[in-house]
Amino acid sequence: MAVTRGFTGRRRARDPRLPPGQYDVGTDWPVLNAESTPHLGSERWSFLVDGLVAEPVSWTWDEIRALPGSSYSGDIHCVTSWSKFGMRFDGVSVDTLLEAVALDPAAAYVMATSHTGYTTNLPLADVAGGKAWVVWDVDGLPLSDEHGGPARLLVPHLYFWKSAKWVSGLRIMAADEPGFWERNGYHDRGDPWLEQRYQGD
Amino acid sequence: MAALSWQSATVVEIRRETPTAKTFRLKVPDAVPHVAGQYYVLRLTAEDGYSAQRDYSVASVPGSDTVDLTVELLADGEVSGFLHEVVEVGDELEVRGPIGGFFAWRGDSPALGVAGGSGVVPLMSMLRLSRGLDPSLFRLVVSARRPADLYYADEIVGDRTTVVYTRQAPPGFGRPLGRLTAEDLAAVLEPGQTVFVCGAPPFCDHATDLLQSKGVPSDRIRVERFGPS
Description:
In chain A, about 5% of the residues lie in helices and about 30% in strands. With about 200 residues, chain A is mainly beta. Chain A has one domain (about 45-195): Sulfite Oxidase, Chain A, domain 2 (Alpha-Beta Complex). Chain B is of the alpha/beta class. Chain B has helices at about 80-85, 120-135, 155, 180-185, 200-215; strands at about 5-20, 20-25, 40-45, 50-55, 65-70, 90-100, 110-115, 140-145, 160-165, 195-200, 220-225. In chain B, the strands form 2 sheets. In chain B, strands 4-3-6-1-2-5 form a 6-stranded antiparallel β-sheet, with helices on one face. The mean pLDDT of chain B is about 95. The interface of A and B includes residues 10, 25, 80 and 82 of A.
């Protein structure tokens, strides 16, 4: 990196929770999405696991809320360079949802889909093993529409565009294929600690 | 898409747009031609390796040999404050881009831009493109608090541009002061338009709600939210 003339930056100790190139957004929670914000309501929301499974399985709002709950407490990282520390999300582990289907042995990737048509691709390993959730509460309150309510995917160890708002399901795939931002130049995996922001990083 | 590498760009001109906005004209050595609506990432690096980066939309017309980034000075903005207060013509700034394939217009189909405040930057690139190609393809609605806050004031006006003032208007201005209304949009909506909405999140939500109330399908609306990030 070339040094910028005259730039010293904010003289603060770098928080070890901060991945490279990120800054602490503090109490703000910026909203970034490329679509108009839908007002779905829980009655129109549903979640479907399909693709390479023996039988697709879907849940209504009431059905998914009746599953055993799971929460995440920790940090989130947006590719636009803000990170937000110490959040708590409540919902259901993606593991619980995947246990309800019989995965094909060839299953290796998932395409997360949204009720808006948004898509984002992830390795199956990144949404299994306690690493991903479908969540409906943040810091004890229901997710607002602008933050993906009534429910969004949460994959906090990857950049936050992977955490699809207004999530509608996971399509299980054998081979990776790009989702919405990934077709538009963003990285297929998006690990903030490796700064996988754009294709080729 | 090929990997976009960081490049050292030279500041060749700095122009003040409003009391809180400056345009930085950059000479980018290996510039990839941008599409109207795209942005660059700009990175500042201190001697000890500390760095900060932000995204800034391109205002200049596609095909120009320099890249204009217009930067709003944010309260307590680490990067915008440095750009406004320290950077001079001749300085080198690290940039990476152009980036973005969704909020982008190639000038080959009808489009409407709806901008709030600094959100006009990527739409200015679209307006400039349309003026060189076919002015009938693009319309712009821009909301500003007051005349002094209107970016590109001399250039932006025209018969394809509607300006909405929310707090203060020039003497004799025809429209009452106030927030963007459905009627403002109805006057410029045409079938087949892709609508590009850009501004702070509350403005974007307001504008997209109005557009949908006027029957614009959500898959024709593309939104770029400028945050405090």
